[in-house]
Amino acid sequence: MTAAHLLAKLGKEAVQPRKVGSVWRKAAISAKNIARLRKTGEFEWLDSISEKKEEKERPPKGHKHDRLKVELEKQRAEKMANMSKLVAEYRQKKNDSNVSALDRLVLTKKQLRQKSRGA
């Protein structure tokens, strides 16, 4: 049976793929034959079916590091504002060790660390 007869018999179903159960079936008429029939002009309604929908043009997404740059800079600025306080606390903690001056002269670095941790 020729494509024109199939198209006349089946109508729009011959042109479009269809889902039977959970399986998709091909169109009864190939795209090549549909194009040939469209050129002849017999079936004018084929032009309306084959038109593709226009997709909305989205702006480019960009790189992740560019999108997060402003937020990360803000976080860094907040952390840097607290940095002098944190350094002062760290130095105070280091100086307030429970190791005497005599121990500092006699013990090795490893022994000093262990003693300052309380081990």
Describe this protein's structure.
By secondary structure, the chain is mostly helical. Helix content is 60%, strand content 5%. It contains 6 helices and 2 strands. A two-stranded antiparallel ribbon has the order 1-2. The N and C termini lie far apart (93 Å).
List keywords for this structure.
single chain, 119 residues, mainly alpha, two-stranded antiparallel sheet, 60% helix, rod-shaped
How do the strands line up in the largest sheet?
A: 1-2
Largest sheet: 2 strands, antiparallel
Using the alpha-carbon principal axes, give the shape.
Answer: rod-shaped
Cα radius of gyration in angstroms: 39 Å
Which structural class matches the secondary elements? mainly alpha
> How large is the share of residues in beta strands?
5-15%
Please estimate the helix content.
55-70%
Mean pLDDT: 83
Give the beta-strand count.
Answer: 2
Written as H for each helix and E for each strand, in order along the chain, the element string is HEEHHHHH
- N-to-C CA distance: 93 Å
